[in-house]
C-alpha cells in the first residue's frame, strides 16, 4: 500500500475545514437574503426581490405582496438605473423569527446622474420557513430628499 501524498491530505483537510466554516448562521443567512434583494433591485431582477416575501406580507398602508411587486415594476420602468445603498444592518434573531432595521438610500434616473432619490428608515420582520428567511412585515419612514 502506497502512502498518501502529504499535499493531497493537506488539501483534503483544508476542504473539510472550509466546508465546515461555510455553514452560515441564521444571521448570516438573513444578511445574505437582504443583500440578494438589494442586488435584485439594482440588477433589475424583480423576482429576486419578490421571492423572499411571505404570502401574507404586509407593508406600509396595508401594501401586500402584489402591490409591492407593482410598485417595484413601476420604478424599474421609470428608472433606467437604480442604486440601493444600505446603511448598517441591526439584526436581532429570536429563534425562527428576526428583525432587521436599517437606513436605505434609493436613487434612480435615466442618465449617468441620478435624478431622484429618497432616504428611508426601514424596519423588517422575518420568519424562517423551510430553511429560508421570509419577509412578512416591513415599515419604512416617509423618506426625504437627500
Strand content: 35-45%
Structural class: alpha+beta
Rg over CA atoms? 20 Å
Specify the helix fraction band: 25-40%
How many strands in all?
6
What is the CATH C level class, in words? Alpha Beta
How many strands, what sense, and barrel or not for the largest sheet?
6 strands, mixed
Can you give the mean pLDDT? Answer: 86
- The domain tally reads 1
Distance between the termini: 71 Å
Describe the protein in words.
With 146 residues, the chain is α+β, with helices and mostly antiparallel strands. The protein has four helices and six strands. The chain has a single domain, classed as Nuclear Transport Factor 2, Chain: A, CATH 3.10.450.50. Strand 4 and strand 5 form a beta hairpin. The longest helix has 17 residues. The N and C termini lie far apart (71 Å). About 12% of the residues have low confidence. Keywords: Signal.
Write the layout of secondary structure elements.
Blueprint: H1 6-21, H2 26-42, H3 46-50, E1 53-58, H4 65-78, E2 81-86, E3 90-94, E4 97-109, E5 116-129, E6 132-140
Parallel strand pairs: 1-6
Antiparallel strand pairs: 2-4, 3-4, 4-5, 5-6
Amino acid at each position: 500500500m502506497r502512502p498518501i501524498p502529504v499535499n493531497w491530505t493537506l488539501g483534503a483537510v483544508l476542504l473539510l475545514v472550509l466546508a465546515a466554516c461555510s455553514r452560515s448562521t441564521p444571521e448570516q443567512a438573513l444578511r445574505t437574503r437582504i443583500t440578494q434583494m438589494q442586488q435584485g433591485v439594482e440588477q433589475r431582477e424583480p423576482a429576486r426581490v419578490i421571492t423572499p416575501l411571505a404570502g401574507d406580507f404586509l407593508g406600509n398602508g396595508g401594501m401586500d405582496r402584489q402591490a409591492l411587486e407593482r410598485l417595484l415594476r413601476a420604478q424599474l420602468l421609470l428608472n433606467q438605473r437604480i442604486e440601493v445603498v444600505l446603511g448598517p444592518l441591526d439584526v436581532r434573531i429570536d429563534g425562527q423569527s428576526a428583525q432587521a432595521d436599517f437606513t436605505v438610500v434609493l436613487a434612480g434616473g435615466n442618465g449617468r446622474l441620478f435624478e431622484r432619490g429618497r432616504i428611508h428608515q426601514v424596519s423588517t420582520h422575518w420568519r424562517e420557513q423551510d430553511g429560508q428567511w421570509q419577509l412578512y412585515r416591513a415599515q419604512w419612514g416617509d423618506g426625504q430628499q437627500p
